[in-house]
Amino acid sequence: MSTEVHRRRRRAPRGRGAAPHWLGRLPYAIVLCGVAGGLVLCALDYFRKGSGLMAAAVLFGALARLVLPPSQAGMLETRSRWVDVTTMTVLAVAIATTAAVVPHP
């Protein structure tokens, strides 16, 4: 590539108030760890606690997507904001409902 193309592709330096690059991945990592922890609890025969943890993690993801700006939402941002928040909220409610309905052995 020519140097002219490199100059156009070069990003402007971030200002002092800009968030670090890893901060945008933090909400997604929290949701991912919560769901993984819930799956581990379910595998250890703590179905209700595991499902509750998964529902809370997904609900946290919905809240993070609702509150954070697009630059900090990271990988939680896949579609428009209302579609992401609605999808994650419905999924969290479905997981919590399933945990409440399934009878305890």
Automatic annotation (TrEMBL):
Membrane listed as a keyword: yes
Keywords: Membrane, Transmembrane, Transmembrane helix
Superkingdom field: Bacteria
InterPro entries according to UniProt: DUF3017
Record has Transmembrane helix as a keyword: yes
Pfam families (UniProt xref): DUF3017 (PF11222)
Transmembrane portions of the chain: 26-47, 53-70, 82-102
Protein's name according to its UniProt entry: DUF3017 domain-containing protein
Organism of derivation: Actinomadura rubteroloni
